Amino acid sequence: HGAKPVAVTSLVDRSGGQTKFEVPFISLLELTFPTYPADQLPPELAKIPATKPGS
């Protein structure tokens, strides 16, 4: 097929700048969220019941 990508895109970039592509990476929005191991949640977050979002 021989196509050569010129860029990678996404609607939302949640990578925290950790993407590694050989071509430019462009997103509409960049979001960064902290992540915690289950046993190290801050108390204010531990009070909120976990939910599984829909698809």
Task: Write a concise keyword list for the protein shown above.
1 helix, two-stranded parallel ribbon
Sheet with most strands: 2 strands, parallel
Shape: elongated
Strand order of the largest sheet: 1-2
Order of helices and strands: EEH
Question: How is the topology of this model organized?
Answer:
Layout: E1 8-13, E2 25-30, H1 43-46
Parallel strand pairs: 1-2
Q: What's this entry about, in short?
A:
With 55 residues, the chain is mainly β.
Walkthrough of the structure:
The chain has one helix at residues 43-46; strands at 8-13, 25-30. The chain is mainly beta and 55 residues long. The protein has a domain at 1-31. Strands 1-2 form a two-stranded parallel sheet.
